[in-house]
Amino acid sequence: MESSHSDRGLTPVKIVVAGGFGVGKTTFVGAISEIEPLRSEAIITEASADVDELFGDGTKTMTTVAMDFGRISLKHDLVLYLFGTPGQDRFHFMWNELARGAIGAVVLVDTRRIEAGFAAVDFFEKRGTPFVVAINTFHGRKLHSIEEVRHALQVGPETPIAYCDARVRVDVQKVLVTLVEHALDLASTGAAVN
């Protein structure tokens, strides 16, 4: 298929959005995507209660079972392709495929359930993939300081951490710009391994 004139000279960049179940990954991708995001959600059933770690407030009725996909142009020549991972432990086997070729990752965390972020942090640290931690503030509530979150997740000072309301486009954009800058800095020093 021949690319259109408008697609010539574009630099495609793959980014993974990961984190635990219910932290806001689907919302994060949907808030920024310039196309209708591809979502692979299924209704949460009682059958999954014995398999998945569900939280009991009953507000979450859908869950990602494969991935979310969105696209955003940051500049006239830079296009980010966002791949949101499923958060349930039973789907973590898919993370390797979703992370293949990514320049970096956003680890989205909910400080009410900080332990849900451990798997994503460990995954990207082991792969040597640059990542940033985005603390989903859920209606602007900053329940913990950045340093408290850094300590809880045991990530070093070289890892950027920022607050973000996953529903707010400008917040999501700031996180993505931070990630791209972080990945470029690591690449320029030869520190990134992917």
Task: Tell me the layout of helices and strands.
Elements: E1 11-18, H1 25-32, E2 38-43, E3 62-73, E4 78-84, H2 95-99, E5 104-109, H3 118-127, E6 131-136, H4 146-153, E7 161-164, H5 169-189
Parallel strand pairs: 1-4, 1-5, 5-6, 6-7
Antiparallel strand pairs: 2-3, 3-4
Question: What string, H for helix and E for strand, traces the elements in order?
Answer: EHEEEHEHEHEH
What fold name stands as the CATH topology?
Rossmann fold
Which of globular, elongated, flat, extended, rod-shaped describes the shape? globular
The gyration radius over C-alpha positions equals: 16 Å
- Count of the domains: 1
Total helical elements: 5
Q: Low-confidence segments, ≥5 residues, pLDDT <50?
A: 1-5, 41-45, 60-66
Q: Into which percentage range does the β-strand content fall?
A: 25-35%
Main pleated sheet: 7 strands, mixed
Distance between the termini: 29 Å
Mean pLDDT: 80
CATH superfamily: P-loop containing nucleotide triphosphate hydrolases
Q: How do the strands line up in the largest sheet?
A: 2-3-4-1-5-6-7
User: How many E-type strands?
Assistant: 7
| SS-based class | alpha/beta
CATH architecture: 3-Layer(aba) Sandwich
